[in-house]
Design goal:
Pfam families: Hydrolase_3 (PF08282). This is Haloacid dehalogenase. InterPro entries: Cof, HAD-like_sf, HAD-SF_hydro_IIB, HAD_sf. The chain has 270 residues and is an alpha/beta fold. The protein folds into 2 domains: 156 residues, HAD superfamily/HAD-like (Rossmann fold, 3-Layer(aba) Sandwich); 103 residues, Hypothetical Protein, Haloacid Dehalogenase-like Hydrolase, Chain: A, domain 2 (2-Layer Sandwich). Helix content is 31%, strand content 22%. It is built from 10 helices and 14 strands. Strands 8-7-6-9-11-10 form a 6-stranded mixed sheet. Helix 1 packs parallel to helix 10.
């Protein structure tokens, strides 16, 4: 196989259980770049929440690129400049907020710079501040939204057991309108229907001129499934959920055993 681009998820994949990038993983990324292979971090996070990881991996040089918001935003990492961006229109944000009220779940709206916090159900403050500490949280009045209200991602963040029960109550029409993905046990993410990490690889192909068949994608969770399926070489972590393992051509070691570095060294480096 001839791999020209490696797309790597963060949590549970590149990051170990201490939320760090191991020296073996960093060394493999460095060697891949030296060999001319593009290394792209792909995440549901905003760029600001992963800058320290990009810097740690040497991925903030000219020409380095990242897929954020699960593929909904493509950015040059050195400058933060947006290359492609897909956002929710105002009416969709209102629709998803109404659903959160019907379900009794806290909801947050995330754009490039801010986490917007509408009124939460009584006694149910969002758990998202425990997940996201890179962007400021600002209250917002949902009855008086500006006409231009571009939102990259909408989340319901609540205790896993109750969240899972509430997810079962979501009408099918919402799955037809939007992409719904559990990215963490306590986090349900809504993205525009045209967004997933697999479609993000297609955007990278258009921008960089690299065929998807020449890409490797490495992941572990449900929101990684689309890119593991879409890439020419799909790799699942040993700690991945069964759905991702079943879709992958290769299963590498766990995130605590430098599985990313192992896969790059075995299948990418000459």
């Amino acid at each position: 196989m001839s791999i020209k681009l490696v797309a790597i998820d963060l949590d549970g994949t590149l990051l170990n259980s201490d939320h760090e990038v191991s020296e073996k993983n960093k060394d493999a990324i460095r060697k891949a770049k030296e060999q001319g292979v593009k290394v792209v971090l792909v995440t549901g996070r905003p760029l600001k929440a992963m800058l320290h990881i990009l810097e740690d991996c040497g991925l903030t040089e000219a020409g380095d690129i990242a897929l954020t918001y699960n593929g909904g935003l493509v950015q040059w990492t050195q400058t933060g400049e947006s290359v492609r961006q897909i956002t929710f229109p105002k009416e969709d944000s209102l629709d998803i907020y109404k659903l959160s009220q019907d379900l009794g779940l806290p909801c947050n709206f995330i754009d490039l710079d801010t986490v917007h916090a509408p009124p939460y159900p009584e006694g149910k403050p969002s758990q998202y501040p425990k997940v996201m500490n890179a962007l400021p949280f600002e209250p917002i009045d949902m009855t008086n939204l500006p006409e231009e209200f571009p939102i990259n991602k909408i989340v319901y963040c609540w205790h896993q057991e109750e969240l899972d029960e509430k997810i079962k109550e979501i009408p099918d029409i919402y799955r037809e309108r939007y992409n719904l993905i559990k990215s963490r046990p306590q986090l349900l993410e809504f993205m525009p229907k045209s967004i997933d990490k697999g479609k993000g690889l297609d955007l990278l192909s258009e921008i960089l001129g690299i065929d998807v068949a020449d890409m490797m994608a490495i992941g572990d969770q449900e929101n990684d499934l689309a890119m593991v399926q879409r890439a020419g070489t799909g790799v699942a972590m040993e700690n991945a959920i069964p759905l991702v393992k079943d879709a992958a051509q290769i299963i590498t070691k766990t995130n605590d055993e430098h599985g990313v570095g192992y896969a790059i060294e075995k299948y990418v480096l000459n």
